[in-house]
Amino acid sequence: MLEHTPLADPYPAYARLREAGGAHHVRFRSGLYGWVVTRYGDARAALADPRLSKDPRNAPPDWQAAGRGRPLEDRSGLGTHLLTMDPPEHTRVRRLMSGFFTPRRLEAMRPRVRALAHALIDRRPAGLIADFAAPLQLAALCDVLGIPPADRGDFGRWTDAVVSSQGDPAARPEALEHLTAYVTALLATKPPAPAPAPEPAADPAADPAADPADDVVSALVGAAGEQGRLTEAELLSAVFLLLVAGYETTVGLIGLAVHTLLRDPAPGLPGGPPAEGTSREERDRVLDVALEELLRHDSPVELSTWRFATEPVEIGGTRFETGQPVLVAIAAANRDPARFPGPDMPDLGREDNAHLSFGHGPHYCLGAGLARVVGREALGALTRLRGLALAVPPDELRWRASLTLRGPLELPVTYDGIAPIGP
To answer: Distance of alpha carbon 286 from its chain centroid, rounded?
Structure first.
């Protein structure tokens, strides 16, 4: 059923499912199967319910067999990561990583992200995915991971081949081998960084000052004491999770946001007229509010990763028996009219916007703050492209064919000129 949802516009199909009932049983060609939750209240409850495990070892044997070899569903190899862990294992690993995603550290990254976004605009991008969104997010991830500048060319090519939907499938095994070898060597040579403050910080002003020498990999290598060291498999899996979960999702966020804005232009946003007579603070506020609505209206995460009932669970009138797999349809929940008035039209000034695009509960996306920084700076830089428009008819765009993620594979654009960077 969900595999036949139109890639460019799955929302009418999700609306029919939501109206017909809160949860529906689905089976995919891969052999995976389970329940999909579609209504906002039920989705929020499912995302936070500790009885719905993230560990695929709690799934039925036939489901586990169907999921083998899929990195986000398989606990072997690179699948031992935050998306397949429950507390206390999940709590331990997340705490080790979370100190490098605090508000103060992310704000310290913003000037570099902003400068890079504007530098990419100055190169006159013809396609906003390959020429803008992808290199911008890859550079941000390299900063977070501590990839040395001299290595970023090879690292970027390998990462793109492994995690990008536009990559050549035949090139992925060799690229994965190179990337695994590189990350393994990087882990062996990283000096331990000072242990970061645990998440969450009660006061952002009290977060540790960002140190340019600090990075997530150094922190993970040096983690010790009562939190416990990570195993080699956990270290590799943590790095690959940041690449897989952080790269395509933020690239999709930018692509979907611009796709929406080019259909419904608004002042001060890409594709719309300039916001005249406004301060930098006012423009940033417009971008922040609009970004949240763009995330709600067209989320790059269409479906959550899997959960598994560890005991009978009833949500929204549907009973999930022990072992049954459960998906949350983020795309359906974010357009539930019971929660969001006029959900199918973007309201770029919407203030009450508790969307679920970054999840909810203990598995709330660790990289949400980084995605917001990159997304906002991307939109701000794109406002310099005057007369921005799609270079092809909308129905000629190609879309990512993925169960979990969605977004355009490319956004070819035209524009009349490039405005200078404003104050």
So the answer is: 22
Give the 3-state secondary structure of residue 77: helix
Q: Give a yes or no: residue 422 inside a domain.
A: no
In a domain, 423, yes or no: no
The SS3 assignment for 176 reads: helix
pLDDT, tens digit, 9 for 90 and up, residues 362-381: 999 999 999 999 999 999 99
Q: What is the CATH number of the domain that holds 148?
A: 1.10.630.10
Distance CA 261, CA 281 (A): 21
Residue 421 lies in a domain: no
Token pair, residue 63, equals 């489901």
Tokens of 188: 């062996």
Q: Is the peptide bond before 125 cis (omega within 30 degrees of 0)?
A: no
Residues spanned by the domain of 23: 2-416
The Cα–Cα gap between 1 and 13 comes to 9
Give the single-character DSSP code of 323: T
Q: What is the pLDDT of residues 239-256, one digit of tens each?
A: 888 887 888 899 999 999
CA–CA gap between residue 423 and residue 403 (Å, rounded): 42
